[in-house]
Amino acid sequence: MTNATPPQGNPGDIINWPMLKVRYRTDKDAVAALLPPGIEPGDDATVYLTFYNFPVLNEPEYGFVMTASANFDGVDGEYALGYVIDQEDAIYTSREHWGQPKYLGATTYFRMLDHVEAKVVHAGYTFAQFSGNVASTDEPGEVFETNEWWIKVARAVTMMPGEYDYPPHVVRVRAKYRTAFRQTLAGELVLRESPHDPLAQRLPMREQLDAYLWTPEFLEREITVAGPLDAQAFTPFAHTIGGSRFPLG
After folding, report:
1. Strand bridging mode 46-56 / 75-85
2. Would you give the distance in Å from CA 96 to the centre of its chain?
């Protein structure tokens, strides 16, 4: 039994949509292969996926976030591999301003009574999908902090390998939350191979850890430059698949 109170609001108001969070374990070597030198894989080799609908520019933004456990300069966090969103206006400024790896795709995410469905489609491929049901309502959690790593970089207009107009820097997104409401889901994540979003190929699922609906209380968020990376060592990671951080090839 829990005393947790669900969020209240106007019917149909998008501001109270919970995030659908799914975690799974992959291989540490697979995570390491995607990280540029200077960023290290986390010990737990966890992949974090988030399906969401959140107001951006005062309208719904449906999105899908892919991160993997990683640390930089001794700080544990998550390395962002891609943000698949349906708002084109928010893509290019986010990547140029902060290095946030956003690109255009279509996310479907809805709840009907206690049933939850979500999928993400890009370039004709449905590469991630979840289906499940609410199993329990959890107690509100304690305050916790997260760190997410983005890469801000601009290669040289000369097109010379290893030269940059802005050399690669790690951007730290430090955030603090409290869980306002959470419901555990019983369901299954399915990953499918895609040449454009190689989540299933590059980070194969070994074990699904959990899935839940999460309504956070946003307490703090700070975006700063955490430090540089070795520009020459970063060269193979500069050429990515579209706007993601999946290396090409």
Report:
1. unpaired
2. 18
pLDDT digits (tens, 9 = 90+) for 173-182: 999 999 999 9
* Integer Cα distance of 150 and 166 in angstroms: 15
Domain boundaries defined on the chain:
14-143+174-218
Q: What is the largest CA-CA distance in the chain?
A: 64
For 14-143+174-218, CATH number out of 3.90.550.10, 1.10.260.40, 2.40.400.10, 2.60.40.10 equals 2.40.400.10
In this structure, what token pair is assigned to residue 30? Answer: 């697979």
Coil vs helix vs strand at 220: strand
Per-residue pLDDT tens for 187-214?
999 999 999 999 999 999 999 999 999 9
Are the beta carbons of 229 and 36 closer than 8 angstroms?
Answer: yes
The half-sphere exposure of 72 on its side-chain side, counting CA atoms within 13 A, is: 27
Residue 187's CB is within 10 A of a number of other CB atoms, namely: 20
CA pair distance 7, 15, nearest whole angstrom = 10
pTM across the whole model: 0.95
